[in-house]
Input
Amino acid sequence: MSFSRMKLLSTGLAALVLLAGALAPSDSVAQSSGETMPAMAQKEITFTSWVGPYMRSQMLGFVRPYEAKTGTKVHVDGYNGGIDEIRDQVESANVTWDIVDLTQADSLRACNEGLLEDLSGIELPAGADGTAFKDDFVEGALNKCGVGVIVWATAFAYNKDISASAGAAPSTIADFFDTDKFPGRRAVRNDPSVLMEWALIADGVAPADVYAQLETPEGVARALERMSSIKTGLRFWTKGSEPIRLLNDHEVVMSMIWATTGATAAKKEGATFDMVWDGRVIELDLFGIPKGSQNKDAAIDFIRFASSSEALANMVKHLPNGPTRKSSLALLPEDILAQLPNGPAYEDKAHILSDAAWWSKNYARLKESYDAWLHEVTQKGASGTVR
Output
């Protein structure tokens, strides 16, 4: 090879090296342009829960503290319960939610359908008092696909004006269905659970016998017939803030309501309603991870943090639902303990523990009966948006 040809090649290679260096972004350029290098990418997860005061208690109780501690960005999405949206995401292989707050019955249903990740091997921190986590959670708060969040209840509230017109205030679940003594519109959550239990209790069925009754066609028919006593002008709601507005605006005289949300709102200036704790239905909520989440490890880390004794107690201070860890109770002040729906303040009031396992197996059957009843009600003029 001639000297001139060798010189030409070496000059060309040097030029290529210089060109490559000029085209490659330097760290300083990447930083000045606001780009984040892949290795430094911030972790992001999506947590889906119920919109309203409950979500606010979670934001303040453990979402923002988790972000501050870990640097992970938590996107918070809202929904109205059920498992249809989770099913759609999983079946379409387009899972965008990483952690979901589910009722206990929905947690079991989704788990049985294979829509949630298996969390049976998850290791959680011990309780604040040193209790092993499996002994610290209340019964039902841990299952194959779920980790407990809150103990909560559904009760009902009444507009104070009804007391003057009726000469007495409603005090039992039977009063909710007594439109002769307490005339006026009612509002209920658009779902068969709670309403069907209430209807049977109001019709004289003992709380312990409710689910046995709902196993039979006769029991279902009995519940639907009692429900029909409030069908005139019946309003339906899906979000926890709606019954508060309906009561304060005098659009209904009584409404099913999430107990702690209602009790907190009833104490605010300008509130026009009071609570009735008799007949309340007590349930649990659990965290779950949709099957196929691309951030499963980060989601588990979030659940570990959010289900600790301290995080649950911190959440409850913003909205007094019951924490699912027993050790959290010792971290709460007396005024909060007195408001818990499963606390000692309401032990003398009749209540029913929702049978989540039963509902997970029977929900579809009763939803079909409820939908048929709902169609009849709406065709005959019950008001309100059914969504």
About this structure: The chain has 17 helices and eleven strands. The longest strand covers residues 273-288. The mean pLDDT is 88. Residues 356-379 form the longest helix (24 residues).
